[in-house]
Amino acid sequence: MARTADPERAAARREAIMRAAIALFAERGFESTSAAEIAKAAGLSSGSVFYYFADKRAVFRALFERDLPAARELVARHATGADPVASLLAMVDVLAADAMDPLAPGIMVELVRQVDKDPELAQLIAETAATQHAGFAALVERGISDGSIDPELDPGEAAQWIQVAIDGAFLNADPDHDPRPMLRRMITRFLSRPCDHAGDHA
């Protein structure tokens, strides 16, 4: 029975380390946070971080490792929706939800600072972004085909701008303000055919 409990305890301690690390990294930055401080904040002994992670960078990288499988699942879940615009906006809602986390701006800034220093992190972020991009582009292409999206748009370029808008929500996050309604409005207008709002300023 003891052996069965060990993986569960290890998983719980890894989770505690990541929870402590994300708060410290967001508040103080990666470089100014020590592994000992992370362990203390997690309620563990000073050397515990290196028992569960190879180094401090592995802790930071672990904060983003779940994003890739989550992105794949999100894209698969919305890929065949009857309304491609509605499916696309549902994806936006999910991806932008974490922008209301008070830690989001600090972690995004630190990600920008650290991604070029860690090839494994860079690859992980690139694969996650590519997965999201492919999902958005496929939905834009479907919307163009069924007449619900402006045919003048290039699916790949449109997908990229949608991702830029989501990233902007994180970089300018306010925990007291939900950015999703404005994102939905912006993206809906961006995708709509010119004739759909030709009379807006009439």
From TrEMBL:
It comes from the Bacteria. Residues 11-71 form the HTH tetR-type domain. GO terms for molecular function: DNA-binding transcription factor activity; transcription cis-regulatory region binding. Keywords: DNA-binding, Repressor, Transcription, Transcription regulation. This is DNA-binding transcriptional regulator, AcrR family. Residues 34-53 bind DNA. Pfam families: TetR_C_6, TetR_N. The lineage of its organism: Bacteria, Bacillati, Actinomycetota, Actinomycetes, Pseudonocardiales. The keyword Transcription applies.
